[in-house]
Amino acid sequence: MKYFKRLLFLIALFMTITPAIAAEEEGGDIDLQAILWGHVKDSYEWHITDIGETPIVIHLPVIVHGKTGWHVFMSNEIEEEPIESGKMKGYKEAGKGTGLYIAPAGSLYENKIVEVADDGTETRPFDISITKSVVVLFIDAVILLLCVLIPARWCRRHKADDPAPKGFVGFMNMFITYVYDDIIEPALGKEAAKYAPYLLTCFFFIFVVNVMGLMPFPPGGGNLTGNITITFFLAVCTLLVTNFSGTKHYWKDIFWPEVPWWLKAPVPLMPIIEVFGIFTKPLALMVRLFANMLAGHAIAIALTCIIFIMASMGAFACGAMTIFSVMLSIFMMLLEVLVCFIQAMVFTMLSAVFISMARLHPHEAAE
Question: For the residues 314-318, what does the mean pLDDT come to?
Answer without folding.
Answer: 61
